[in-house]
Amino acid sequence: MQNILKRKWVAMLAAVLCTVLWGSAYPVIKYGYGVLHITSIADKLMFAGVRFVLAGLMVLVFTWCKNRRVPTVPGERVGGVLLYGFLQTGLMYILNYIGVANTTATKTSIITAASAFFAVLFAPLFFKGERLTVWKVVGVLIGMTGIFLVNNTALDGFSFMGEGLVLISMLLNTAGSFVGKRVSKGIVYESTVYQLSFGGLVILLIALFMGGCFPLTWQSVGIVLFLAFVSAAAFTLWTALLVLHEAGQILVFNMLIPVTGALWSFIILGEDQILEPLYIVSIILTAVGIVLVNRPTKTSE
To answer: What's the start-to-end Cα distance of the chain, in Å?
Structure first.
């Protein structure tokens, strides 16, 4: 599969698919909170922990069926993979799940685009061959304008426990992606198995300590399995793309999550903010940002 993903157009389609999957997660999480009557932080963390542990098991089963052996990680990379899981899945989603509960799914999806801008700005500091060009800076500024525009109006305002935590979680998402790119070369499936499982276990243990729970029904099982599949499929594909391509080129596709997330929110939750002029302008600005960041640059042989 990795040979196919090396092709630029295939990688772009795969990145878009990941944003479609992740875009569906936010409204489904909020839907699950409502129908399962999940209100406390402990219950939300339990919901998240079960999701990611199951996602890790899904990738484990897939990897075992593919290779006919239990996936293992080289000893020198174990620490990096665990750090990957702690940042990308554990700490990030602890903050993200709490933040999602305190804002709309549409706004969450738009703020999520911030991770793309963080990646563009910080990638040159960590990876050789990635440059910060004028057009990338302009794209970042325009895209961030769209993000802040939708979060600093008299209509809704800005809440630290809502939009603030989601924004911090995006910083952690970027950091985790950088770690994942470094430690996952040649072991994409293996690193995904253990980063999801370890991160999910961290969340689960915290939830258990806090007394978290949620009802076990056919509805809750279906919701959790769907969210686990989204994580398993998207994280595996995303990790492979990060290993094969420049971090900035792939992570910038996070800016499409506002579009997919807002559309899914409209379909699943009936959140009609997507139809308001302010949100439309915000989405247009983030779209312009992604175009400018991906603007081809002239290079000399």
So the answer is: 30
Q: For the segment 142-181, what is each residue's pLDDT rounded down to a tens digit?
A: 877 777 776 555 345 677 888 888 889 888 888 888 888 8
Residue 171, CB-side half-sphere exposure with 13 Å CA sphere = 6
Number of other CB atoms surrounding residue 201 within 10 Å: 17
Burial of residue 186, with CB atoms counted within 10 A of its CB: 0-12 exposed, 13-18 middle, 19 or more buried: exposed
8 Å CB contact between 140 and 293: yes
Q: Are 42 and 212 in contact (CB under 8 A)?
A: yes
**Interval 173-209: pLDDT, tens:** 888 888 888 888 888 889 999 999 999 999 999 999 9
| Cα–Cα dist 3/132, whole Å | 28
Q: Are 71 and 63 in contact (CB under 8 A)?
A: yes
Q: CA 235, CA 238: separation in Å to the nearest integer?
A: 5
Q: Which residues contact 90 (CB under 8 A, 6 or more apart)?
A: 198, 199, 200, 202, 203
Q: Distance between CA 139 and CA 117 in Å, rounded?
A: 8
CB 271 within 8 A of CB 106: yes
Distance of CA 24 to the CA centre of its chain: 11
